[in-house]
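>> received
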Amino acid sequence: MRAVILLSGGLDSATVLAMARHAGRACHAISFIYGQRHEVELAAARRVAEAQGVAEHLVFPLDLRLFGGSALTSDIDVPKDAVGAPGIPVTYVPARNTIFLALALGYAEVRDASEIWLGVNAIDFSGYPDCRPDFLAAFQRVIETGTRSGVERAEPRIVAPLVEMTKADIIRKGTELGVDYGLTHSCYDPDPAGRACGHCDSCLLRRKGFEEAGVPDPTVYARH
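>> returned
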């Protein structure tokens, strides 16, 4: 069975790729270079794809800086030490997962893939609305009503195995499957050398996950 995997280069997507491979899927990975300030994650995505032996790795270019509106795609400071702050953080990229899933859907139709796997999480996350189960269910309905493969066979199916897992549980699962987290990158605001800032939401959630999982954190931080 073929599956398209959304591969950002972070620990969640690396774990999802390992889970899909463990489930016997032929994995076609897709990554996006979208004008993100942490473009270093694309190098991580390539490392992960090579290490896990995907059937194909497509890097899709689009420039969401044309929209702006996010600390990841415009000149807005990335919040530091702010995990759990009320509201949707400024690191939310407008409609990003909707856009990514739409493109992954087209890729899946062309490759005759039965599934789209992604690493969204609604437990240890920053509060993005496009990481929640109701969003995924709504997009599944889009697939089934708006595509040929959806109308004919209700495919591809969205698979989000991490959605109700803690970050620690995700890391334990990936470690069990042999994921090398030293290849991954999660930081939203790395320094020029690509080192993690250690204080953005993504860094804090990642660090907390390794601590709670009891697994050594391989991340190189610019500062602690």
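>> The domain at 2-213 is CATH 3.40.50.620 (Rossmann fold).
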